[in-house]
Amino acid sequence: MAQALGAPALAMGATFLAFGAAVAEAGLSLPWALLCTGAVYGMAGQLVLLQLAAGGGAALPATIAATAANARFLPMAVAIAPLLGRGGRRWLVLPFIAITPWAAGMRVLPGLPDAARLPWFLGFALASWCAAMAATAAGHLAAPLLPAEFRAALLFANPLYFALLLAADAARPGVAPALLAGILAAPLAFAVGGAWGLPLAGLLGGTLAFLWNRLR
Amino acid sequence: MSQADAALAFTIGIGLALRGCGLLLGGALRPDHPAIAWASAVSVATLAAFVTLAIAAPAGLLATVPLAARLAGLAAGFLAFRLLPGRLLPAMGAGLAALLLARALTG
Fold first, then answer.
1. Which one of A86, A90, A129, A164 makes the best mutation probe of the B interface by having the most chain B beta carbons within 10 Å?
2. Taking the model in full, what pTM does it have?
3. Sign of dihedral through CA atoms A21, B43, B76, A184?
């Protein structure tokens, strides 16, 4: 638990604080913010969902875009599943497969005895989740009390966080083409506009990057 | 139920399904299987497009911050992250401080 509340959790907490503030800025309620953090629990999808849902977009394109942004849940779960054993209790981790606990789990779990892995992961994940919920609530409640320039800076925290994470990730095999394709597809998303622009750009850019990686 | 509530409910359901599929497939599919690689590429591209738009053409309150200030914040964040590898928090602090400073300077 102490590991879950260390430096990475502070950076993660800052993004959930900013998310809570962004939800308040968009005029959505605190329960909406808490349900989004607690049950979606994937900041990339949360932000995309917020942007499209708060803009008055239809539910379907907002869902597709948020799901595409969080599509990494699938490979993350595939990768960590063998480390959590084969018993039914491993399903307890289902809502907690998210970037911060997953990255820590992939680093720590291989070095633990089999019996200790699931309890360690659940302890880490629950502590991270509680911190995320508290930060979301704090951001939502504090946002109306802050001056406009600080609220704008808070809204900038999340794109900056993901820009840094993507840059750090770019060295991994296959990531750089998808990153570049997403950046190049952004004008398409802007031109298409509305709720469909982003999912279209992500699907097109990601598919082209996937084909590029396969064919070269 | 509003469109925002419906989108949230659907996203929660599909997110849990994705995680559940991953747990089921773990051990059966390799992490480098083509279907997994495609999902990863779409995820990265969607996030990259989102970040690009959020910085270059934001909506709402962030749109009141001049583009030069947003780019200064991004550059300062990257610079700090390069000087302090793996340290996200100081990099974010540097980026946000640069954004506020650049905004004050550019009015």
1. A164
2. 0.79
3. negative
